[in-house]
Amino acid sequence: MFTDGSKLSSGECGAAFCVPSLGIESTFQLPNSSSVFTAECVALREALMFVLSEPFSHVLILTDSLSLIDNLSMYNKSSTDNHLVWDIKKSTFLSSII
Prior knowledge:
The chain is an alpha+beta fold.
């Protein structure tokens, strides 16, 4: 599974994930005021929600967002207000106990 978020010079912002082996692609249009970081977060969060809704036994999720990975690895609820990072952390916790 691959995730990506991007913002065009025109201001349009979006996120997506895909599972090439299953022919699945899902895209999400975001408000123009969104940042690339927000788009990357939305892409990963939506990918995780998809994974949790399906009967997969193993999933590999790939992202090219080092800033997202860094935020997830050092994230502490008391140190940031980023609700998207918190949503992703909760999703990964849920997937580890299901």
